[in-house]
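U., I forgot to send this yesterday:
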Amino acid sequence: MFHMPLFFFISGLLLSLEKYSTYNSFVISRIKQLYIPYVVFYLLLYIYWVVIERPMRFLKMSQLDAFWGLFWGTDSSYWIYPGGVMWFVIALFSLELIVFPIIKWCKIWYLKFIFFGLLTIGGLLCSKYHLFILPFSLPNSLLSLPFFVFGFLMRKHLILSKNIYLGSKLHILYMLVPFVVFTCWQYPWLCDLGKQTDISFLMCPHFYFFYTIPFVEIGLWLLISMLIGKNRLLEYLGRNTLPILAFHLPVSRALMYMSYRIWGCDRYVIREDVFKSICLTIVVMLCCWPFIILWNKVFPLVVAFIFRNKKTI
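Result:
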């Protein structure tokens, strides 16, 4: 219900207009930072899916259909199954290419409001009629646009201004209480809404809740982040979101399969048990660590080779 809106909100927070003087320079930067990793990760996950997962799970999807998911990017089981978790990356790529010129060069605020309103309505229509056919996860990006734009609007207060993080921890705790009370009070209802809502599958039956409730949970996690302050481990995970996003799913599936073969522990038991889930998360992160190190060494070379220069990102 809210974790993907939170992802798009954070992405909006991190959008910098000052770094790019032209639209062309912005597009090139997005290709380097989002599109190339998406293609590389998808192809790696596709090979893994063809060689290991597809034969073991006896999936009926053809290899050709799965390959075409590279160009559609929508998390439909027909289009992007091998790299389903990567739909967010290509959706963010499409969304930023759409939003950037409107924010940077449209100076009239109500025209921006009209543009963003029409695009959001387009996303809702895609959700209603299940228009998976649009490429580059475009329907998903339009559906998520309000969270991204709101994140950008909060950038000045949360990123560029340092004063907000200098407040008393006690005051932050006071502000946090109503958010926690609301979340705990409405927990069963929110879980039920979460089962019905899935941006990746264009499932948004209650759009009036979808564009309100997630902002409460986003506020909750913003306050928690202020309480935590700086944390090297979280910063490391944040900088390496892309390789973690790509590699964690096959690693977690492999670990759950091994636990089933060795201890007879079913994957549903692991997912529904808090302690086992936490242990799985820790082990998955540790197993992803070598992939992160390898990616950080190889990726700059890939970008340099594609753009034929040594200056990468």
